[in-house]
Amino acid sequence: MSTAVTNTTSSSTSSTGTGIAANGDLSSLFTTLLVAQIKNQDPLSPQDPSQFVSQLTQLSQVESMQQLTSQGQTNTSMLASLQLMTLGAQVGSTLQAAVSSVSLSGQPVDLRFTLDASSRGNTLVITGSDGRAQRVELGSLGKGEQAYTLDPAKLGLGNGTYSLSIETQNKQSVSVETLARLDGVRLSADGNVMLQLAGVGEVTSQSITQFKGRVGS
């Protein structure tokens, strides 16, 4: 009698396991463990069938989350490709983008920053990769957008990457932006759309704050 119970359960489980296994590696592993659990249970004291139902429910939830994750990754990839094509059509245009550093190569770089309130003392801090900082006094400035042209030749700055920051007398938090021509667009290995800006280097597409159009248009 015990043998009959064991065989019937194993046969039913085998049929169910075949259907579940079709869902993927996770289902196959679960089915293998489930069959082993049923085969090795005490026939005189079988486990509560509700436990198996609970396990199947948990498996279904995990698989649903995996499918959502996979779908999200696919959508992200499609959006990045669409953004790549859209921005690619803007190569040659001038845009404004937030930057924390610039890659100088001898050419002047147009900078922009906005003050929430007027400030009597303002300083542009330019720090090289060696940690040496050069401070450029900008004087008293009013509220609103400000412009400054960073000329490496005048400041004696060699080619290389320099971090930028603005210090104000009244301790405002100021974001530095650059006004530059878009020279190229690429998709990085981690899926980010990267923009090559003339005289600045690469920035992410999320850094864009304004499109200025093409020069002469």
How far the N terminus sits from the C terminus, by CA atoms, comes to: 90 Å
The count of DSSP E runs of length 2 or more, i.e. the number of strands, is 11
- Number of structural units classed as domains: 2
Query: Helix amount, in percent?
Result: 25-40%
CATH topology type of the largest domain: Immunoglobulin-like
List low-confidence stretches.
Answer: 1-23
Strand content: 25-35%
| Rounded average pLDDT | 78
- Rg over CA atoms, rounded to whole Å, is 31 Å
Element-level helix/strand string: HHHEEEEEEHEEEEE
Q: In one word, what is the shape?
A: elongated
CATH architecture of the largest domain: Sandwich
> Could you describe the largest sheet, including whether it forms a barrel?
7 strands, antiparallel
Q: How many H/I helices? A: 4
Structural class, by secondary structure, is: alpha+beta
Explain this structure to me?
- The protein has 217 residues and is an alpha+beta fold.
- It has two domains: 2-63; 94-213, Immunoglobulin-like (Sandwich), CATH 2.60.40.4070.
- It has four helices and eleven strands; from the N terminus they run H-H-H-E-E-E-E-E-E-H-E-E-E-E-E.
Topology:
Blueprint: H1 2-21, H2 25-39, H3 49-88, E1 94-98, E2 101-104, E3 109-115, E4 122-128, E5 133-137, E6 144-150, H4 152-155, E7 160-168, E8 176-187, E9 193-197, E10 201-204, E11 208-213
Antiparallel strand pairs: 1-8, 1-11, 2-7, 3-6, 3-8, 4-5, 4-7, 8-9, 9-10
Helix pairs in contact: 1-2
